[in-house]
Write a structure and sequence with these properties.
The protein is an alpha+beta fold. The protein has 28 helices and 26 strands. The chain is elongated. The N and C termini lie far apart (about 150 Å). The site of ligand C2E has 21 residues, from strand 19, helix 18, helix 19 and strand 23. Its cofactor is Mg(2+).
Length: about 700
């Protein structure tokens, strides 16, 4: 660009002093150019300030050559417009400053005549700030739109003015099922998707008051009618010129469902779905507090199914579970809505009767009546898996106020009362009495004494002979547990066996019995008292003991440890063990049978199903239960049962022992029915090992056998 000397100010002089002054003072940047040669005639102060160009750099130069233009096109375009229309309506372009920065400008041009010369007055309006903020706005609008559309949670945009839905995002459509066309332009009430529309006003008031909402729990209906639990966050945004409410509706239904399930699990019994101990205690506390205020009282009924263990053992856990389910259902069906039926575990149910009124006698009578109804409800026969079962139950009752003031106390006392019912025969009701506490204490004392007995090795094994009268021989003995109590003397298993089983101590005790019995056989064999071909020791195996994973290994270790022939050991199991888990039982029995150990089914005939599984089991011997032997010589049906068992054993080629033979009549009957192996007081009770050895003496045996 050739730099020429600036044009003399005479141009303006010609126009008069007032014009130049005005030109220079104009607040808008101006440039005066010649209309023909387009040389710059003058620039004003605002121009210099805006672009930083000096008079020397601009004035006198051909306009086209100014560094002001970012491209040559710009000037050519302006020129073209000016020569066409003689003027230039606003044209928006970017112009360069002396420091190389760019400014967004609107340019206008007006023809002016100065000193008779046609000129163009270019006025430049700086709109850089506006353009920058428009750009920023555009950018943020684009960003907002992108965020809105792509947000993972459902979003809605409402016009604040009209409350109409302006837009919804993709996630909204996915979760709520509405297409944008179905909702845009409608208000929320028109859409009818609030589950509780009456809450809407309060929520809007909160939004107005606080300027925003944060995780407000609101339930909506999806398009298909499903209820969606949402957490709504809202705030105000400007979208273009419009003030809007942006709401994010986070669907927390799944989380709520999981939370509800976890809460339900924490407070309910998994099998029956009834409240558990935790929820029961909570409800009791509530009722006790309410009762005080409204002069009402409540009662706690502790239920325990009689002989449930037998059902579980003989028919299996699935059947046991179904029974528990049915009992829970029946109890629930016979109490009022305000009452609570809870299951504490096992076969223990608790009913909380709430809102009772009247004097102490009236309340007690009311509770007794309800308890009787519940007892009857449980007692009506139930058919499960083809088995018709008659259930019985015992109920212990504690009345609030009279028998305790706290949930814990009432529960404890109802449990104690239940213990009282069980101790005095089952299938009835008992209210708590302070002396019942004594029985409970005794049970606890017995358990701790048994633990001590185990440690102090106070258990003994007694042996009851088993005789074959045809072979005139003692063919075995049943090992029976005794407790040599330091003060009470010899105690039989009837007193403590249930405590050993309930407490789990039977596992340790059972293992001791196994080892001790095997040691005794080894001793007898060593001393030549018995022959391995004809003699075996029977031991009772409890269900818990048999179910142990390593039961087979325990037996093997005992047999090998004493090097006895395995056939000298006979394991007595009950039908209950078998039915509880037939596959596991069959597997274990086979493993032991392969080893040489033999099996007897104890108490045969008393279980729920006797025959169906017998063929699958490697059983050697059936023991006819003593309850059938007791009356077998009489007129009743027991004789028929014994005959049936004998003929069945014969057809299945199983050995047979009649257990509990006490009288000559029983003995005669059995002999007549061709049953020749016996165990019973008629021959001998269980005796200490030394006495048994003496009994084995050939003389003693034959004398005894000669008795009948
Ligand atoms: N009325 C009468 N009873 C007779 C007669 N002959 C034998 N008995 C008794 O009948 C029971 C037979 O044992 P069980 O049926 O296996 O019944 C046993 C068995 O189920 C259990 N038991 C005993 N010892 C053990 C053991 O070491 N382990 C396990 N798991 N249970 C045992 O305790 C139950 C009772 O044992 P005991 O009191 O020793 O009672 C024994 C025995 O003394 C008789 O002629 N008349």
């Amino acid at each position: 660009m050739t730099v020429e000397a600036p044009m003399p100010m005479s141009y303006f002089d010609l126009g008069g002093q007032g014009l130049i002054g005005l030109f220079q003072r104009l607040p808008i940047a101006c440039m005066l150019v010649h209309a023909e040669n387009y040389k710059v005639l003058a620039i004003n102060e605002a121009f210099r300030r805006l672009f930083g160009w000096s008079d020397q750099q601009v004035v006198g130069h051909p306009s086209a050559e100014l560094s002001l233009w970012v491209t040559l096109n710009q000037w050519e375009m302006l020129c073209g417009a000016m020569s066409c229309q003689g003027r230039l309506d606003q044209s928006e372009l970017e112009l360069r400053c002396s420091d190389d920065s760019l400014r967004s400008c609107l340019i206008y041009a007006e023809p002016v005549e100065i000193n008779g010369e046609a000129c163009r007055l270019l006025m430049v309006h700086d709109i850089s700030d506006r353009v920058a903020s428009e750009k920023a706005l555009k950018r943020s609008e684009n960003k907002f739109a992108a965020l809105f559309r792509g947000a993972p949670d459902p979003c809605m945009l409402f016009e604040k003015r009209t409350a109409k839905i302006a837009d919804v995002n993709r996630s909204f459509t996915e979760v709520f099922g509405y297409e944008p066309t179905e909702v845009v332009g409608k208000t929320a009430p028109e859409l009818g998707f609030w589950r509780f529309p009456e809450k809407r006003e309060a929520v809007i008031a909160k939004l107005m008051r606080e300027g925003r909402l944060r995780n407000e729990p609101i339930d909506f209906f999806a398009r298909d009618g499903r209820v969606l639990h949402c957490e709504v966050s809202s705030n105000f945004v400007m979208v273009g010129e419009e003030r809007c409410t942006l709401s994010t509706l986070k669907d927390v239904s799944e989380r709520k469902r999981i939370e509800a399930r976890i809460k339900h699990q924490a407070y309910h019994d998994a099998l029956t779905g009834l409240p558990n101990r935790l929820l029961l205690s909570d409800r009791m506390r509530q009722h006790l507090a309410l009762g005080e205020r409204h002069n009402l009282t409540c009662a706690l009924l502790f239920f325990d199914l009689d002989h449930f263990k037998r059902i579980n053992d003989s028919l299996g856990h699935t059947c046991g579970d179904a029974v528990l389910h049915e009992v829970g259902r029946r109890l629930r069906a016979h109490v009022r809505k305000a009452d609570t039926v809870a299951r504490l575990g096992g076969d223990e149910f608790v009913v909380l009767l709430a809102g009772l009124s009247g004097n102490a006698e009236q309340v007690a009578e009311q509770v007794r009546r309800t308890a009787m109804q519940l007892l009857d409800a449980v007692a009506s026969p139930v058919c499960i898996e083809g088995h018709s079962l008659q259930l019985g139950c015992s109920v212990g009752v504690a009345l609030a106020g009279e028998h305790g003031d706290t949930a814990e106390e009432l529960l404890k006392h109802a449990d104690t009362a239940l213990y009282g019912v069980k101790a005095s025969g089952r299938n009835s009701i008992a209210f708590f009495e302070p002396q019942m506490q004594v029985a409970v204490s005794q049970r606890l004392l017995l358990e701790s004494e048994l633990r001590r007995a185990l440690e102090e090795q106070e258990f003994r094994l007694f042996y009851q002979p088993q005789l074959d009268t045809r072979a005139r021989q003692i063919i075995g003995a049943e090992a029976l547990l005794r407790w040599q109590h330091p003060q009470k003397g010899l105690v039989g298993p009837g007193v403590f066996m249930h405590v050993l089983e309930e407490s789990g101590m039977i596992l340790q005790t059972g293992q001791w019995v196994l080892q001790e019995a095997v040691r005794f056989v080894a001793h007898l064999l060593d001393r030549g008292c018995v022959s391995a071909d004809t003699f075996s020791i029977s031991i009772n195996i409890s269900p818990r003991q048999f179910r142990q994973r390593d039961f087979v290994a325990q037996v093997a270790a005992a047999v090998h440890g004493q090097s006895i022939p395995p056939q000298c050991l006979k394991l007595e199991i009950t039908e209950g063990i078998v039915i509880d888990n037939v596959d596991d039982t069959v597997d274990k029995m086979h493993e032991l049978r392969v080893m040489g150990v033999r099996f007897a089914i104890d108490d045969f005939g008393t279980g729920y199903s006797s025959l169906s599984y017998l063929k699958r089991l490697p059983v050697d011997l059936l023991k006819i239960d003593q309850s059938f032997i007791r009356d077998c010589a009489g007129e009743g049906s027991d004789a028929e049962i014994v005959r049936a068992i004998i003929s069945m054993a014969r057809s299945l080629k199983l050995d047979l022992i009649a257990e509990g033979v006490e009288t000559a009549e029983q003995f005669a009957f059995l002999q007549q029915e061709d049953c020749h192996v016996y165990q019973g007081y008629y021959f001998s009770p269980a005796v200490a090992p030394e006495a048994f050895c003496a009994f084995l003496g050939p003389l003693a045996a034959s004398e005894r056998l000669a008795l009948p």
